[in-house]
Amino acid sequence: MDQRRMSRKEFLRTGAKLAVGLTAGVGAMTLLPRRAAGAPYSVPSLPWPYVELDVEEARKRGYAGYYSGKGCSYGAFHVIISMLQEEVGEPYASMPTEFLEWGRGGGWGWGTLCGALTGALTAINVCKERGVARKLGDELLGWYTQTAFPTDISNLYAVEGRFPDTRIRDEQVQTVCGSPLCHVSVSEWVAAANVGASSPERSERCGRLTGDVAAYTVQIMNDELKETFAPLYAAPASVAYCMDCHGRDALDDTLGKMECTQCHGDHTGRLTARDWGATPTHQVRQHDPGPFARRTTIRFATPSAGVVWLAIYDIHGRLVKNLVNLEHYLQGLHDVVWDGTNNRGERVASGTYFYRLQAGTHDETQRINLF
């Protein structure tokens, strides 16, 4: 037995020689065919070439990718890479897309970052240089937190049977989750829809959401390519309020850009009021018939004094106008007028918009029409 024993030093010395020999042999076997066929394949460094893609085609393919059996992360990533494989060819043609399947359900069902965001952000990182990828990623994440999913467009596609899977064709309830986390997004929606998280209806909702995320990702990458991209996301005032104390220039005890109070509450008591309970109402008022002489009045009631935040978003979930930015309102009925302009003072097109109102513990998103 002792004769067969080998010291650790001898083992490492012998193993190293063996490893060198194996490596040389494998290298020779690998390189010989390549040399015989020509130059060995070389993977180019990132970013890879990007060309303008069809936004609505991305929406449909993202939905189909979700239902491929590989889920949301693969669906959002695959649609963008597969479209670039068709339009550009290499190096995309040699890239497998199945490796993003792990992101489904927030990471194999762990409910962390939404899988559709994981896939989309990875695609952005492949196609854009670091600084641009971060800028587009910030916009995508912020847009996701403030968008009512499924979007009107995805609901319309489903109702009209324009998605590949037509088993569920109803217009689904829409919710704004305020978070990029899968478990928050799903939990908010199933509560509003009154269905189970494992139900076919929830799967359909995530299929539509995957298409929406893929479409918006393509849209902002197209805009960046054409040099027309302008960040529209603005963080809720509650984020700045929390980071004033907990950010790098103060306590420096946390990192993040999400809405803190959604999970942790407001330990200061200044942002939330426990006795908030009234449901706000809105009224749309058309004044003069001219196309630029219109405005929307949002009316809400506060049963007690409290801090209010109110903003307008378009149908894609992009911030249009901050109307009330963490201002203190007394008890009573209040009217806030939106004059149809964005934060840059420019007139916006007539159509459907959403307002999001946060007051105390009350958080509501409603549709309004601007004529």
Average pLDDT figure: 82
- The percentage helix is 40-55%
Largest sheet: 4 strands, antiparallel
The rounded distance between the terminal residues' Cα atoms is 92 Å
Poorly predicted parts: 1-6, 11-36, 273-293
Tell me the number of helical segments per DSSP (H or I, 4 or more residues long): 10
From N to C, what is the helix and strand string? HHHHHHHHHHEEEEEEE
- Strand order within the widest sheet? 4-3-6-7
Count of DSSP strands: 7
Beta-strand content: 15-25%
> Please, how many domains?
2
Class from secondary-structure proportions: alpha+beta
Could you outline the blueprint of secondary structure elements for this entry?
Blueprint: H1 8-37, H2 55-87, H3 104-107, H4 115-127, H5 130-146, H6 152-159, H7 182-193, H8 200-225, H9 237-246, H10 261-264, E1 281-285, E2 295-302, E3 306-313, E4 319-329, E5 332-338, E6 351-359, E7 362-370
Antiparallel strand pairs: 1-2, 2-5, 3-4, 3-6, 6-7
Helix pairs in contact: 2-4, 2-8, 4-5, 4-8, 5-8, 6-8
Briefly summarize what is shown.
With 371 residues, the chain is of the alpha+beta class.
